[in-house]
Fold each of these.
Amino acid sequence: MKFKRRLTSGDLLLLELVFAIIFFCLTMSASMAVFGNAYEMSSKAEKLDAAVREANSAAEIIRSANTADDIYSMLQTEGFTGSGGVYSKEYGDGKYSINIIGVQNVNLFSADIVCKDTKGTTEPIYEINIKHALSVQNPKAAK
């Protein structure tokens, strides 16, 4: 005759505890994934916000100037380094950089502003193209 072992109340309690532990481990891993994704999204939003702020600041400098020389001098005043229409600046405690490539074509100044992460990623965080009409330097030449 075969003997069948029945589960006692102690065995059922132990089985219930194992299922509870497995359930809480699964819910913990799901909630950690949610918080991890939220942190990643927050980090990306912070980068984009800083990049937009810096690019708009540089764009306002370009839009407020009357001559290309004024643009370059104001960019240098704001902490940009470089010459010949190519300027750069690090911001965010050196985490990010902003590069400006400016070209003057008669009375039209065009600038490409690109914000990047300095950790070696080549994909820009934010980029904008500015076109600004400069004031006439010599009124006789305009006629």
Amino acid sequence: MVSRTDNPDAEQVAEETTRTRPTPKSFNDADTESTVLWKDRKRILGMPLSFTRYIVDEDRLTLKIGLLNSLVNDVLLYRILDVKLVQTLWQKLFGVGTITLFTADKSQDQIKLRNIKHPEKVRRYLGQLIEEERESRRLVGRELYGVASDGVDLNDH
């Protein structure tokens, strides 16, 4: 058995992780601000008239739904397994589309970004962000093993 002190690479990875993601010392020191990389709203007839908002920052996708009663759901980018775009004829006429994200999250295995502007551009951008986040965490390919072994035949979908 290899202990942590016998593996200098593990110590280096731990030090890098500590440096890039510092732990707040108290609740008041927690960093609640993040850089928004992309945001949009669910659109009705091409207009942003709904109370559903989609926000992507450095490491997560956040869905905020509602006005009086609200729901906020986060999914870490590296847990997104696949990205699919669907555009109906009506969506094409209004310049919107629906992106479905398939995730390794047990609470929500599919997330739909409905009726967003520039859907093809957003699909490509999200794909790049997801790959960068996986590479930065050194998770390329490893997360897929647990999902495929759940008894689900991925070729049936």
